[in-house]
## 1
Amino acid sequence: MEGTVNILWLILLIVTVLVLPFLIHLLHRTWKAARSIERYFLEMKTAGFGIAGHTEYIKALDDTIGVASGILGVAGSINERSETLKTTLANRAEKLK
């Protein structure tokens, strides 16, 4: 009985010695991958804050577009009135000849 226990302990010791370095290697690879993922998330966070900081100007651009639309309406009105002025001044110039 004692010989069987010793053989089992010897087999378990050999398996442990052979498997333990492989398990340590796998754990080390997992740890390195987790650190890499953490660095990528930090870079993504920094990029996200940069994007958020640059997109705050979109509201100002929308306001500018709104003002520009109003200016275009006024410019069209001025253009129509300038045509009227041009016609009126041309008629007066012909009368003066």
## 2
Amino acid sequence: MTITVLIADDQAMVRAGFAAILDAQEDIRVVGQVADGAEAIEQARRLRPDVVLMDVRMPVMNGIDATRELVHPSRGEPYTPLVLVLTTFDVDDYVHDALTAGASGFLLKDALPDDLVQAVRIVAAGDALLAPRVTKRLLERFAAQRPPTNRHALALAGLTEREHEILVLIGRGFSNGEIAGRLFIAEQTVKTHVSRIFTKLGLRDRVHAVILAFDAGLVEPAS
């Protein structure tokens, strides 16, 4: 299947460069390019791309607000794309705000072309992606600044004991393979549990599962 992409960036040369890299792939097609967040929302709803590449700093509406409106539309829009945020700035606030707005990935613009291509494929497949150098400190900062809440209590009550156990391990940063090793079960079994956890909790990807685990107090910063 071809992955369709909309590029939102206020710099024309950046948009052209991203488009050239992505259109050179057999499985990716750029369907549109826009220069601000408001236009990104309008064109995303018209073109319905699989993935929106979203810059953070743009005129009219910034990429964080545009992401929030696309992923959690105020008017009940049924279409919600996957958003991969791209920025020049390695700033924790941007990453934190992008993820809480509903972005499924975060990548710095100085990444290699192959990294951009793989990022689009990873996000399109339903997995989350963070630039490695910001992941650990982001989650630690998130946990330290957000006191636990009970707003997830009802949803968490619907998990089985095993699913709850696996969610905690996801929150601690373990991969499916590592979880399988710790629990002495098959990795495919872990994948099945993870899929059910995401469905029951309405999660889009692994990063948001980690955020929920911290938010609900299942994992503490010291973990």
